[in-house]
Design a protein that fits this description.
Layout (H helix, E strand, L loop, with lengths): L1 E6 L5 E6 L23 E4 L6 E4 L35 E5 L20 E3 L3 E6 L13 H19 L6 E8 L11 E7 L4 H17 L3 H12 L3 E4 L3 E4 L8 E7 L11 H21 L6 E6 L13 E6 L1 E3 L2 E2 L4 H6 L8 H10 L7
Helix pairs in contact: 1-4, 4-6
């Protein structure tokens, strides 16, 4: 892989990750006339739950479902400059123009019943390919490996920034998920706090370790591999399975057999192995309803400076689609009380995914 760092017209950083180390240099210049990137995003702590909430009103003006010919994530063309100055690329990462968190966030720190502070952090966009009409599942394993390397690179870089406490790479896909740009892409968030979901998982892992002397995720993976009922695929270094207490009508966890805190800790062999196995998972997910499944792919990693001995890196892929044409809505119980009610049993989903045709030839 070759890594090249440049800057956009407003000072934002853009990084090119080319599949081959001997790829040509990236020298294109952003010719747009853009104002300097600033944000007044803010975080406030809910006194009733202890959870932080981000306020980013400037995001109301972000790009919303442009026509394909005006996609800001496609390569630039004569007369059509985009967020990517080059005429082609493999994988590219750049600072979000409309970030929820930024190193440029300003504002006072206010203690009190509802503490307030600037949304200090960083948000980046990750484009997986310069082809507008493809999807992650159609990428070759070599490109998936480049994406993994890029995400590992950004995890380490964002984790070293002032104020960042947790790094979260993810992909949103599909209109049903709320995607506003259809070009295949993901994002990386650098949060100025540890997220509620991660804090809960770390607390649970700590209690389990104290009681049993073993990591809870290790026991979960061993249980799933021994039973086999919910397992989709196994490889030398990873297992993909439907979790026994799945919340979503379609949900798959992809977990390494070795406990590692984050993506940078993966070995070369583990990264190669993941690329092959994950494409098999995506092929079955898209084969489930014979359509591109709307999904969220969320990497769970250890925070920057806490719980690193407790966390176990894993990828969670889930969808709101409960049948080919029906959505799972987060209604009263889920949204009001955070108590999930799933209409699909994990065992049935696993069986249907194993029987689904493998799209993209996998």
């Amino acid at each position: 892989m070759r890594r090249t760092v440049r800057n956009l017209a407003d000072g934002r950083e853009i990084l090119y990750f080319d599949d081959r180390p001997d790829a040509p240099g990236r020298t294109a210049v952003d010719t747009r006339d853009l104002p300097r990137n600033e944000t007044a995003s803010q975080i406030r702590r809910d006194p009733l739950t202890g959870e932080w909430v981000a306020l980013a009103a400037h995001r109301q003006t972000r790009t919303y479902k442009p026509p394909a010919g005006l996609c800001p994530l496609c390569p630039s063309a004569p007369g059509k400059p985009t967020e990517v100055p080059e005429s082609s690329y493999d994988v590219v990462v750049f600072e979000n123009r409309f970030p929820s968190f930024s190193q440029h966030a300003t504002g006072p720190v206010q203690p009190g019943l509802v503490p307030v502070g600037p949304g200090l952090g960083r948000c980046e966009v990750v484009c997986f390919t310069d082809r507008h009409t493809t999807s992650f599942g159609e990428l070759p394993p070599s490109r998936v490996r480049t994406v993994v390397d890029a995400l590992a690179d950004r995890t380490a870089a964002l984790g070293a920034l002032p104020g960042v406490q947790q790094v979260f790479p993810f992909e949103n896909r599909g209109d049903e998920i709320g995607v506003t740009l259809s070009h295949p892409h993901g994002q990386v968030y650098g949060y100025p706090f540890v997220t509620p979901r991660t804090a809960l998982m770390l607390s649970t892992a700590e209690a389990y370790l104290a009681q049993h002397g073993r990591p809870v995720m290790g026991d979960v993976v061993e249980m799933e591999r021994s039973a086999g009922t919910r397992v989709l695929f196994e490889s030398e270094h990873w297992t993909a399975f439907v979790p026994a207490a799945a919340r979503w009508p379609v949900e798959v966890h992809v977990v390494p057999h070795r406990q590692v805190p984050d993506l940078p800790a993966l070995t070369e062999e583990e990264r190669d192995d993941f690329a092959e196995l994950y494409l098999r998972v995506l092929g079955r997910l898209d084969g489930l309803y014979d359509r591109q499944l709307p999904y969220i792919a969320a990497w769970h990693q250890a925070p920057v400076s806490t719980g690193r001995d407790l966390a176990w890196l894993h990828l969670e892929v889930f969808s709101v689609l409960r049948t080919a044409d029906k959505l799972k809505y987060l209604a009263g119980s889920e949204s009001g009380m955070a108590v999930w009610i799933n209409d699909v049993t994990p065992e049935d989903l696993a069986a249907r995914l194993r029987a689904a045709p493998a799209r993209y030839g996998r």
